[in-house]
DNA sequence: ATCTCAACCGATATATAGATCGGGAAGAGA
DNA sequence: TCTCTTCCCGATCTATATATCGGTTGAGAT
């Protein structure tokens, strides 16, 4: 858990939105063809007019901070919140 | 429901095996990455040393006879038995 | 003003599932 | 033997999700 990397990852509203959306997948990604238990696949985040390449970069940032778990299934990458890292980071932050 | 096409489709052991395997997906395709409720995807049938192109042709034969339902999700095609056609065909056969 | 860095985009690359094509082999029947 | 059909394979094509690259822009720091 690298605080610096995590804080940089959180330093963008879109990436914070991604984490928020992933709290309630059934609410925000109901139209996904795959069952949501698999996670939410990357293309679902192409919102707010962001280009695919930009979304990909944001998701990579979140993943490298370990704030999300990724699971590749063929051509798709499914994302879930990594509650473990998030909770640990919150604990660490409480000492700020 | 075209009897001729159905009978031709059934006239190969591999294709009959596919229908049999699809009766119990959880037994025969437990290792599939996708949930089995989506169906069984084509590559799962690459068994018995058959090449991908051969499997694809067999599945197309079953599909054109309407013995299986197909659902494409991105790069995958998921297969399920079409119980409706199968039952209707069995009824028709009982008049043979 | 300059430097840096994050963000953005379009274009291109990578990877993979499945479909299709061309050709060869085997069996049935005339 | 000739023909027709079915099967099989390797090779190639198509489609699509995601990653990466190159270049531009704008904000903040010095």
One letter per element, helices H and strands E, the order of chain A comes to HHHEHEEH
**Whole-number average pLDDT of chain A?**
92
Distance between the termini of chain A: 16 Å
Oligomer: homodimer
Molecular structure report:
Chain A has helices at residues 3-10, 13-21, 25-28, 52-64, 83-93, and strands spanning 40-41, 68-73, 76-81. Chain A has 96 residues and is an alpha+beta fold. Chain A has a single domain (3-93), classed as Arc Repressor Mutant, subunit A (Orthogonal Bundle). A three-stranded antiparallel beta sheet of chain A has the order 1-3-2. In chain A, strand 2 and strand 3 form a beta hairpin. In chain A, helix 1 (3-10) packs antiparallel against helix 4. Chain A is globular. The two termini of chain A are 16 Å apart. Chain A binds chain B through residues 33-35, 37-38, 73-76, and chain B through 33-35, 37-38, 73-76.
């Amino acid at each position: 858990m690298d605080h610096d990397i995590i804080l940089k990852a959180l330093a963008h509203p879109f990436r914070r939105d991604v984490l928020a959306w992933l709290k309630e997948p059934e609410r925000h990604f109901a139209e996904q063809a795959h069952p949501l238990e698999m996670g939410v696949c990357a293309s679902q985040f192409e919102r707010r007019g962001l280009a695919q390449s930009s979304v990909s970069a944001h998701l990579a940032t979140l993943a490298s901070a370990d704030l999300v778990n990724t699971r590749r299934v063929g051509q798709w990458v499914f994302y879930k919140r990594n509650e473990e890292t998030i909770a640990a980071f919150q604990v660490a932050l409480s000492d700020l």
